[in-house]
Specification:
Length: 144
Amino acid sequence: MRTENELNEERDQDLWRTYLEVSRSLELLSEEDAVRRTVTSAAPRFYVSDERAARVVSWLENDNERVERMLPQRREMFDEIYRRTQLLRTEHPDWCLRDLVRHVVSRPAPQFYLTPGSGYMILRRIKRRRRRERMQVLQRFRRE
C-alpha cells in the first residue's frame, strides 16, 4: 500500500507531464486555460489510498453524513469510485470491499479531481523545485 506522500508525489509527476502535453498541444494558450485543461484531463489513477477509499465507499453505502461535508471535487471523486466499485461488485461478488476498491483506484480516472487553483499551486511548486534543481546543477558545473 502506498503512503499519502507517495501518492501525492506520483500525482504531481503525472500532473506535470499532463501540463506539458497540454501546453505543447495548444498554441497561444493562457496559463489559466492550460491549468484548467490539465486538471480536467484524464489521470492515470485515482490519487487516494486504498484504505481511505474503502472507508469512504463504506460511508457512501451507509449514507453517512461525513460524506455530505466533503469538498465538491473530493465528493465527485469518491462518487465515481463508489459507482465503479458497485459495477465491479456485480462482476466479482466474492471479492471483499477492500479488493474491489484497490482494483478501482489503480485504474485510470476521468480527471485529476483538483480545482484549477489547487492545480496551479501544485504546478507552481513543481516549477520552483525544478528551477532550483537546475540552478544547483549549473553551480556544480561551474565549480568543476
